């Protein structure tokens, strides 16, 4: 029996991989690894697939210096700059996606955190969206406090998004204006408020395979049920603009290992998918069972119609 078969059977039987086992798995033959990951995905999720969309609810002039981000005020990019979107615009987006059969819609804002006034404004908007649509709502409003998350939950939010971005060890190479611990504190505050959390990160920023596995293990410790994986898309003007891009095969490897470390979570392809020649097909056959469809925050994405056609071809059912 191969290493991949042995460790895959452990996961299928309900066991958890150790860090050493995950590191060993990372180096196994790709196709065997991806096949096992798809087997684990089918065991824990059947053919269920999670599809969501996002809207950039507030853009640019972010005080944080995340080295990948087009919206950081520390860098000179061509990202749009505008304040918090009004009710009508966000409601129109929610209705648009609901009409296309999208189950979940996320509102994402630039900045370290929304102000108290902005949170109140978004609560009013969210209540209206909940009154006039049936779409599930997710928000990404930065490093909020528990009482603010409670207010958002009462308004109708079901899930909060807050990416770890990378491992604790590598995080200072990505951002120095807030810390990895700041991220953990916000995630735990959202959970304490009764919200589920969507959290993952970006691969291809210069991190090592060990960093990727460390992030997966932290997500497992936090009990994260939705894990978006973004492929770095170097934005001109940012410090990572010239970073060498990960290959499609390497992304499949990462997805497969994440599936085996996090068998019960939705592994969701997010930003950078448009860089892949197959638009994610290989990853959807290597353990991934979720996607952010439509446009990303500052880059073009893949249409919901295109994604639905691909998912239907692969035998998935959007839930």
Automatic annotation (TrEMBL):
Binds 1 [2Fe-2S] cluster. The cluster is coordinated with 3 cysteines and 1 arginine. Its EC number is 2.8.1.6. Its cofactor is [2Fe-2S] cluster; [4Fe-4S] cluster. This is Biotin synthase. InterPro entries: Aldolase_TIM (IPR013785), BATS_dom (IPR010722), Biotin_synth/BioAB (IPR002684), Biotin_synthase (IPR024177), Elp3/MiaA/NifB-like_rSAM (IPR006638), rSAM (IPR007197), rSAM_sf (IPR058240). Belongs to the radical SAM superfamily. Biotin synthase family. The keyword Iron applies. [4Fe-4S] cluster binds at residues 62, 66, 69.
